Amino acid sequence: MGYDIERFVGYVNEGLLCCICQDVLENPLQAPCEHAFCSTCIHGWLVHHHICPEDRQSLDVSVLWPLFRYMKNDLNQLQIQCRNREHGCNMVCSLESIELHEWTCINMELFPLSSHGAHITCEFCNFELSKLKSFFLDTTQYFHLY
Ligand SMILES: [Zn+2]
Ligand SMILES: [Zn+2]
Ligand SMILES: [Zn+2]
């Protein structure tokens, strides 16, 4: 399965979508007919089919190759939101670096400061800040939780 297109900021070229799951390509592979798929999607498909799901030309796992370099570059540059957005992480970065971010972000726990007695407000707008603690990095960040 690819990356949910809802997580991307800005325009995503149709050519960077998987023909099977319709999400943004994850570990993409390309067929000789130039259709592109997530690695897991096309491998799952080819277990029971021997054609391209898009144009029905014959297709075998041995002829799949990595995505063209220019498409791969486009893909890597897409801006994606952190999967922990609903838990308060506002990180947006390139697809290329999101995995590294999420790996550290997964270990974070968010809690309102007031529940721990402390009370810190934003120096710019006086909004009460929340505290984000990363157990993995042993760092603490403060930010707005709306
Ligand atoms: Zn897919
Ligand atoms: Zn095709
Ligand atoms: Zn995050």
From TrEMBL:
Picking any one GO biological process from the record gives:
regulation of canonical NF-kappaB signal transduction
- Entry's Gene Ontology molecular function annotations: zinc ion binding
Supply the name of the protein.
Answer: Ring finger protein 41, like
Q: Which InterPro entries match?
A: Znf_RING, Znf_RING/FYVE/PHD, Znf_RING_CS
Q: Quote the Pfam families the UniProt record gives.
A: zf-C3HC4_2 (PF13923)
Q: Which organism is it from?
A: Erpetoichthys calabaricus (Rope fish)
| UniProt KW keywords | Metal-binding, Zinc, Zinc-finger
The record, for Gene3D superfamilies, names:
Zinc/RING finger domain, C3HC4 (zinc finger) (3.30.40.10)
